[in-house]
């Protein structure tokens, strides 16, 4: 049995690397001689940097930057000196995981720290940047990042805007004359885990704002403020980016990355699988097991299990998805190359218990799957 284990992280429970190890333990308990390859993955959100460093051997570096509320923290980024390539994960600076539940305020949070990480990469001579967008606590359409890189966002009195998406409603002028000139020579790819536009019912504010602390009134305010910002950007640059697929990623960071960094927006899982050499790994696999915290209809927009399934389908390799929970319309994933899907919980349990037991449940499910695979393989023999 040649099995490829390539989970994403299970949010608030365990990293992708730890999940892969738990899966491998279960396989070995059932089939000690199984050939197991682990390849932790991510789709652009939290954990993407770890997956990229593991896949490329890049050097992990650190910088002191602002978090989403302007507090300083040590953030990691990746450096592949031989290729003058930097890897920056938005969530390292402005991630939701760095804020307590009561601190989440999509009106005020900023991507300034992401700009600081990009500036750090430029200082080290980066010629290429892979920027992973996802897991953000922000909804400022990348305005904070732009400020850190030299842009000036001013109100009607000529004063710098306060941080956060709410303040964008007061934007009177956008001055990019002092934007870091090194950006013009930087090749940027942005990994996004959703295909949402910047505005409207499927936009950054409406779809993702509530998980960042925005109530209905705040969502409406933010959508209006981001629309005003998009108007100013279009007037400044002479090009429209608000409708681009992925512009709404990470609270609108996809919009800023496309408009001001010239970024190519691509599904994060595709980019990270390419870095990991997924096609080569699949060539040796009989079975693929992947997973993440939740699988539902929205997973089709670019989440890890679906990216894996679509790639494996081209080779006719079965793919099993293990999810912490199954949400609305999860069955749609079966049309994307997923062979079967299983929720981890073995009975009713509170969320806290489910999170604490995730390693144990992953191991148990994989042991059962391996035993089933072994039985099916034996029954198929003449």
List its salient traits.
13 helices; globular; Glycerate kinase, domain 2; Rossmann fold; five-stranded parallel sheet; 382 residues; alpha/beta
Explain this structure.
This protein is α/β, with parallel strands linked by helices and 382 residues long. It has two domains: 2-40 and 286-379, Glycerate kinase, domain 1 (Rossmann fold), CATH 3.40.50; 48-269, Alpha-Beta Complex (Glycerate kinase, domain 2), CATH 3.90.1510. The protein is 36% helix and 19% strand. It is built from 13 helices and 13 strands. The strands form three sheets. Strands 3-4-5-6-9-10 form a six-stranded mixed beta sheet, sandwiched between helices. A five-stranded parallel beta sheet has the order 2-1-11-12-13. Helix 1 links the parallel strand 1 (2-5) and strand 2 (35-38). Helix 1 (16-30) packs across helix 13.
Topology, element by element:
Blueprint: E1 2-5, H1 16-30, E2 35-38, H2 48-56, E3 59-66, E4 72-80, E5 85-89, H3 90-94, H4 112-123, E6 128-133, H5 143-148, E7 152-154, E8 173-175, E9 187-192, H6 204-208, H7 216-237, H8 249-261, E10 264-267, H9 268-276, H10 278-282, E11 287-295, H11 304-313, E12 319-326, E13 340-343, H12 351-356, H13 358-379
Parallel strand pairs: 1-2, 1-11, 5-6, 6-9, 9-10, 11-12, 12-13
Antiparallel strand pairs: 3-4, 4-5, 7-8
List the helices and strands in order: EHEHEEEHHEHEEEHHHEHHEHEEHH
Number of domains: 2
- The stretches of 5 or more residues where confidence is low (pLDDT under 50) are none
Spatial shape: globular
CATH topology of the largest domain: Glycerate kinase, domain 2
Q: What is the level 1 CATH name of the largest domain?
A: Alpha Beta
Oligomeric state, counting identical vs distinct chains = single chain
Q: What share of the residues lie within helices? A: 25-40%
Q: Total helix count?
A: 13
Kindly state the mean pLDDT as a whole number?
93
CATH superfamily of the largest domain: Glycerate kinase, domain 2
Structural class, by secondary structure, is: alpha/beta
Sheet with most strands: 6 strands, mixed
CATH architecture of the largest domain: Alpha-Beta Complex
Q: Identify the strand order in the major beta sheet.
A: 3-4-5-6-9-10
Relative strand content: 15-25%
Specify Rg, calculated over alpha carbons.
21 Å
Distance between the termini: 18 Å
- Counting DSSP E segments of at least 2 residues, the number of strands comes to 13
